[in-house]
Amino acid sequence: RTVNHIDGIKTNNNLSNLNIDNNAIILNEESNIVAVEPSAPIRQLLVAILRSKNLGKAQGVASIKDAVSILEVEPVDWILTPILKDHEINAISLINLMCTDKSLSQTRISLFLDEDDQDIFSYAYEKGILCDFKKKFNKESLSTELDEFFQLWNKYNDTTKVSAFYLRKYLNRKSLFRYQINFEKSMLNLYP
Description:
The protein is α/β, with parallel strands linked by helices. Helix content is about 45%, strand content about 15%. The chain has helices spanning about 40-50, 65-75, 90-100, 120-125, 140-155, 160-175, 175-190; strands spanning about 5, 10, 30-35, 55-60, 80, 110-115, 130-135. It has a 5-stranded parallel sheet, with helices on both faces. The radius of gyration is 16 Å and the shape is globular.
């Protein structure tokens, strides 16, 4: 098992140990999507954009605690959330729950991140988040980001490959080329 440090965070290069189903279908007319956002106007915008993409049921909640309450009673395919560091149950708690509860192995998490959140970036990808979006968005910018995501999803139809695309973008943006080489070697082990 190979361990590296990226921005002070340990990252496990053995990607095959993640508790996720790489081929889970999450984007179709029957998908159940939960968008977490404390601000009601932003939450409503996010849900409206998701619904405009003709996905299944998109619902908004104010906290990750509310999202976990939904997970307790019905399956959720995709959760989109900011980090919410100051909340009792934050995105890291949710990610850890997804990694430890096998019944949630097909639930995907995407994070809304900004530069202040970069300290958990590699940890989140190590634990299996699907992708990240810019935390500060408007209707046009988020719609564009989601369109890019859906194009990738349609191209790969594999959560690991989609996540790898987003992680590569981060490593390139931060000029972490040595880590990118290690990452690409791990990907070659998964996809020879």
